[in-house]
Amino acid sequence: MSHTSGGGERREHLYKILVIGELGTGKTSIIKRYVHQFFSQHYRATIGVDFALKVLNWDANTIIRLQLWDIAGQERFGNMTRVYYKEAVGAFIVFDVSRVATFDAVVKWKTDLDTKVQLPDGSPIPCILLANKCDQQKEGIVNSPAKMDEYCREKGFAGWFETSAKENINIEEAARSLVNKILLNDKLLQSNDKDGEKFALEHKIANGENSRESSSGKSCAC
Prior knowledge:
With 222 residues, this protein is an alpha/beta fold. 39% of the residues lie in helices and 22% in strands. A hairpin with a 2-residue loop joins strand 2 (49-59) and strand 3. It is a lipid-anchor. Belongs to the small GTPase superfamily. Rab family. It is found in: Membrane.
């Protein structure tokens, strides 16, 4: 049995994750498969935005709630995407391996994402590319893993997975990979905050600004 740290406290995180890409690439199917373990051939096109919640018992003392935002393909360059993207900490961009045009559009989605949402330190949010419908005939560079690796490095993706919502291939793995990246960023941001506070405190001490002096300084400022 694992021991829980911090006197048995369970940490809870709520993370907003975007699922974006061209119309008909299987975004809704991926979410349904991941959240409800369910697949259907018959989904209506998502209009606007929809979201689902997935709760993960990540480890003995961490619960993660993923809010998965399913953003309609036709929304891409609408003004609303800025609102939809707000406060997201990770994203999947989805294309259909059997339709090369959906892969060509990936770079536009990535640029749109990177211009509209950033982490608190200004860096892009981690984004994983999903080559979906991998149970079907593949077109284009998705046939070459080496080329896909290179493409992802060039375009700033955190990685890529061949997925199939229908056959339940790599959906869990892709999500786990993205959550790991988000947790890593969380740790980095928290340690940077602490370093910042420590630096400010050291700066004050070095300049003789202890609390008594600074308060008396305030009172006689006329």
